[in-house]
Design a protein that fits this description.
The two termini are 42 Å apart. α6 (173-185) runs parallel beside α7. The protein folds into 2 domains: 3-23 and 239-367 and 449-467, Rossmann fold, CATH 3.40.50; 39-236 and 379-436, 3-Layer(aba) Sandwich (Rossmann fold), CATH 3.40.50.2300. β12, α12 (350-356) and β13 (364-367) form a beta-alpha-beta unit. The protein has helices spanning 3-20, 73-83, 87-100, 105-116, 134-153, 173-185, 198-210, 239-253, 268-282, 301-310, 325-335, 350-356, 379-387, 393-411, 415-423, and strands at residues 39-41, 47-49, 59-60, 122-128, 162-168, 189-193, 215-217, 232-234, 258-263, 287-293, 315-318, 341-343, 364-367, 429-431, 434-436, 449-455, 463-467. The chain is built from 15 helices and 17 strands. The protein is of the alpha/beta class and 469 residues long. A 7-stranded mixed sheet has the order 10-9-11-12-13-16-17, with helices on both faces.
Length: 469
């Protein structure tokens, strides 16, 4: 069989595998279809609709299901009960739903919202890419849900509970901008945990900034976000930290000097990480001998590998984003561990272990946090107890982002008050990933953790991400 025919077979096999992946755990869903408008409580206990100029089924405080696949009957009944303001019935149904599916963050958030009902509360909004990045959306929502549950079980924020409004921004900049305009227009929303992708965060940042609404991204790492404004924060380290860690490992630990970079020119995250990694490599005596842009229509992994070999590449460095991860998987399969591989945090997915498996053993990634990286934190134990399994860096960063907003609300429950609190030079708190404090740019001043794919039994796929010493 020719190399190109082998590649075609691999591509078809990979697409079938990805299409049928369910993992049986937490990772796939479908778009919501229940058109009911959302109701949120303001601090006086009154209710008001979030103004909408877009499809209102993207927003829910519990009266519609956004994470719709594998939704229990009890969860569906709870949503109908909340829509009718029958909160006691909703609480009962959601508790039963969580008994069946304890790892469902949407159900836990709605349970806490239903317990509040129409009583006085503080509200925050969480836009996540439910319709396009279900794995990631659930990971982020688990961090938010865990923080909300802890806060409300402890009596709320100065005695007032926290309500969470969920939104599906579909990881689309235009949809997200419409959402941002709606959120800034609803004065009950005191802060935002989001968005996921750097491009979406950069698209919405001017709206939040111009209207004085704090947005804290748990996952957007582009260096451009550092200049987005003093209402824009993030609990995830910028790409500068990731690229530096990967470059040092590449040059010092692997003792290699010639890299082939794989990226997506249409992604703000990917181009940011590509640029910072390139700078770090070149300034320390290394070379980028070739680049492969996964956004191009004529993608051919065999050609990419042939070019890498012909140019003398010693390592494949995957700096692509999540939208091109399936192409990256195919390239990893075709590479078959011929060249060592490094990558950014977008590759840190259960699907990497499930879809590519043995062919990515020894792949090294730079991530903001690993569950075994901070043995002194109480967060991993609490997360396992709540969700019945390990969580990853997106959950930890979302937890910290929620806790940061809570700290701001506790000090001064106004939009401006939250911004001023988070901007104070002495502001800090202990979060899931260590001490959380922000630079004047709104960035998190914290390094990253390098992890390696190794055979193991923590995941159900026979392989795990393991921290490097």
């Amino acid at each position: 069989m020719s190399q190109k025919k082998e590649t075609t077979v691999l591509l078809l096999s990979l697409l079938i595998t990805i299409g049928t992946v369910s993992g049986g755990i937490w990772w796939l869903t479908q778009k919501p279809k229940i058109p009911i408008s959302v109701i949120t409580s303001n601090k006086s206990g009154d209710t008001s609709k979030i103004p909408t100029t877009f499809n209102s089924d993207l927003i829910s405080a519990g009266n519609r299901i956004l994470v719709n696949q594998n939704s229990t009957q009890e969860k569906q009944l709870a949503a109908k009960a909340i829509a009718k303001k029958n909160y006691s019935e909703a609480v009962s149904q959601l508790q039963q739903s969580l008994n069946k599916q304890r790892n469902d963050p949407e159900a836990l958030i709605y349970l806490n919202n239903a317990r509040i009902g129409d009583a006085q509360s503080y509200s925050i909004a969480v836009p996540v890419p439910i319709g396009t990045e279900m794995t990631t959306a659930k990971e982020i929502l688990r961090g938010v849900a865990q923080a909300q549950d802890e806060i409300n079980q402890q009596g709320g924020i100065n005695g007032i509970p926290l309500k969470v409004i969920l939104i599906d921004d579909r990881n689309n900049p235009e949809t997200a901008k419409q959402i941002a305009h709606n959120l800034v227009g609803n004065q009950d929303i005191l802060g935002v945990v989001g968005h996921f992708a750097s491009g979406v965060t950069l698209a919405t940042a001017p709206i939040y900034q111009d209207n004085g609404l704090v947005a804290i991204s748990p996952t957007s790492t582009s260096v451009s976000i550092s200049g987005a404004g003093n209402y824009i924060f993030r609990t995830v380290p910028s790409d500068r930290f990731t690229s530096n860690a990967l470059a040092q490992y590449f040059l010092s630990q692997l003792n290699k000097h010639q890299a082939a970079v794989v990226y997506n020119s249409q992604s703000a995250y990917s181009t940011s990480l590509r640029d910072t990694f390139t700078t770090d490599i070149l300034s320390n005596g290394g070379a980028i001998v070739t680049e492969a842009d996964l956004s191009k229509a004529n993608f051919n992994p065999a050609d990419i590998l042939q070019e890498a070999h012909s140019q003398g590449a010693e390592v494949l460095v995957f700096l692509n984003d999540s939208t091109t991860v399936n192409k990256a998987f195919l390239l990893m399969q075709v590479n078959n561990r011929q060249l060592p591989m490094l990558g950014g945090d977008s590759i840190y997915k259960p699907q990497t272990l499930q879809v590519v498996g043995e062919k990515v053993v020894d792949l090294v990634l730079g991530v903001p946090w690993h569950i075994f990286g901070n043995i002194n934190s109480d967060f991993p134990t609490a997360a396992r107890r709540l969700w019945g399994g390990d969580v990853n860096w997106r959950t930890a960063m979302a937890y910290d982002a929620t806790k940061a907003l809570v700290a701001g609300i506790k000090n001064n429950p106004s939009r401006q008050g939250i911004q001023e609190t988070l901007s104070q030079s002495g502001f800090s708190f202990e979060g899931a990933s260590g001490t959380v404090k922000f630079l004047a740019s709104g960035d998190r001043n914290q390094g990253v953790q390098l992890v390696k794919v190794q055979p193991g039994n923590r995941s159900p796929f026979g392989y795990d991400f393991v921290p490097l010493e």
